[in-house]
Amino acid sequence: MALVEIENLSVEFPTQGGIMRAVDGVSLKLEEGEVLGVVGESGSGKSVTMLALMGLIPFPGRVRADKLTFNGRDLLTISEKERRKLTGKDVAMIFQEPTTSLNPSFTVGFQLTETLRLHEGMDRKAAERRAIELLSQVGIPSPESRLSAYPHQLSGGMNQRVMIAMAIACNPKLLIADEPTTALDVTIQAQILDLLMNLQKERKMGLVMITHNMGVVADTAQRVMVMYAGQIMEERSAADLFASPQHPYTAALLAALPERSEGGRLATIPGVVPGLYDRPKGCLFSPRCAYATEHSRNVRPELRPWASGHIRCHYPLGDPNRNAAIHHDHPLKTEAAS
Amino acid sequence: MLRFIFTRVSLIIPTFIGITLLAFFLIRLVPGDPIETLAGERGIDPARHEQLRKEYGFDQPILVQYGIYLSRVLQGDLGKSMITQEPVLNEFSSLFPATIELALCAILFALIIGLPAGIIAAIRRNSIFDHGVMGVSLAGYSMPIFWWGLILILLFSVQFDLTPVSGRIDVLYYIEPITGFLLIDTLLSDEVDAFWSAVQHLILPTIVLGTVPLAVIARMTRSAMLEVLGEDYIRTAKAKGLSRFRIVALHALRNALIPVVTVIGLQIGVLFTGAILTETIFSWPGVGKWLIDAIFRRDYPVLQGGALLLGVVVMSVNLLVDLAYGLINPRIRHTR
């Protein structure tokens, strides 16, 4: 049984201009102990997908899915109270801005022991002992004295370690890390990633690493899901994805990596992710795609099995009949690559 | 924190001097000669008038008068009332408990209703309750106190005969002042009926005086709460699986209270201004009514002394509020 099963998840926010669909038909399966990287530009729906799994979509957002289970429990029918027993215990989340994610009015010790006392029913003494253990596990020096510190007295990196300690406090089966290193400087980024990966290996917990940094994914994930405008574009094993990206969007993201550039100017993807008013009729990436045709602009591709994973594209890059298909469907632009 | 206290306390000196200046000069801008007012309608003999002017020092140049006044104040001498010949400080301290009792009840009334109303309005944003609270509080804030007081008296005292029209307690009772607070003194002297009489007398003045602070606190709590509820750490609290009540009442409220406490401190000043009007409407024997009477009688020493003492009270309360700030906001407590 998979740890997480999501089928056809969509999250919508009613706005004054109409219904904004932040997540559109996302399906995903996550096994126990698996590390999944979720990548995409800002606004691609990667965080919202995971917030929906956590049950943290703020009002008036609407979550719909054909299936949404965690560890065999149906999250769509579960009561609010039962769900709260899961969140923070079996599934935990850490966020992008560690300093604002911790409550400025309470000490680190209070915020850490709060979780332990709630989910593990520990008394204050036991919770404090466990909190000290946790703080030293996440590499905070002299943890006893840090219990009485307030978040504003610690650095960003330290606060993220506190967040991680809070998240792993109840031995979760799944940890969702929402851009855990974006707000930190580069040396600290590497330390935090190492810490997360070590904890994942030690505890064999599932880890979802949300990021817009392909480099982070390459270092950590076993499987990668590429999202764009609320949809999954491509999903396969990390090794395959980096060796031979199948979706033009994935290829473009990889080409934009400084590590992969071969001198000269860094490649970019012109344009922005479509919003509420300019959502294309066909493939959501078509306005920015170098290979878009009349057909792909009008007919939205379905997510289908392809190679070792799934893809949502009419003309996957590894398809031997690709050129003929594009030619047949009247290309809008001449193919730049070949 | 020590340095914070030191800077905060040293700010009191210029404020104090400012108050003496205002109290001294503003009343002298009001037309009307204190000695003629003192003499009443029958008038006064010019020679006697001149003699009294000398006695009170009104013949000196105004700056000299101010200098004398200030040096006396610094020695703790606020002068005597021109009407009763009682020392100003004595009159003030015998009347002040009545004002404090009313002001405390009013601020409690404002807090007990304002805080929950603001919190619920924030949680149920855009609900009927939210719109209701915001509408009513806007009306409350805009209400002229004297008009509001008269309407309430007309309705509850005259029409429905539910509450007394004026005063602090029924004339039947005489309570020996122990603390000066009637609610406490009546209970101390075992006069339960007198206690209920005092409570009934307090209801309308409390509502009238508490309305503006109530409106301000409700609106401030709502907006502070709305801001805090959108913060990242509230999402973290939800992600920990905490109950909704704990998130709102602990994680959000603790942070939302910081701006609300500031506003409460500022409202204390407003409260005393309001007390002057409220006490006049309800014939409440406090310092507010005493000051209004002093204005009509051109009783300069009482006005100067009363304004100064009230100013000191407001300053002290604000100081306490600022210090209390450090208790709820660790970011202030830990800066030097």
TrEMBL record, chain A:
Record-level GO cellular component terms: plasma membrane
Protein name, UniProt field: Peptide ABC transporter ATP-binding protein
Xref: SUPFAM superfamilies: P-loop containing nucleoside triphosphate hydrolases
Record-linked PROSITE patterns: ABC_TRANSPORTER_2
Signal peptide: none
InterPro entries: AAA+_ATPase, ABC_Ni/Peptide_Import, ABC_transporter-like_ATP-bd, Oligopep_ABC_C, P-loop_NTPase
One term of GO molecular function: ATP hydrolysis activity
Membrane topology: Peripheral membrane protein
NCBIfam families named among the record's database cross-references: oligo_HPY
Membership in a protein family: Belongs to the ABC transporter superfamily.
Domain ABC transporter: 4-254
Presence of keyword Nucleotide-binding: yes
GO biological process terms on file: peptide transport; transmembrane transport
Species this chain originates from: Microvirga vignae
Keywords attached to this entry: ATP-binding, Cell membrane, Membrane, Nucleotide-binding, Transport
Subcellular location: Cell inner membrane
Record gene name: dppD
TrEMBL record, chain B:
ABC transmembrane type-1 domain sequence ranges: 96-321
Key word Transmembrane helix present: yes
Chief localisation class: membrane
GO MF, one annotated term: dipeptide transmembrane transporter activity
Domain of life of the source: Bacteria
Any one of the GO CC terms: plasma membrane
Transmembrane feature ranges: 12-30, 100-123, 135-158, 194-217, 256-282, 302-328
Family: Belongs to the binding-protein-dependent transport system permease family.
PANTHER family in the cross-refs: DIPEPTIDE TRANSPORT SYSTEM PERMEASE PROTEIN DPPB-RELATED
Record-given protein name: Peptide ABC transporter permease
Species in which this protein is naturally found: Microvirga vignae
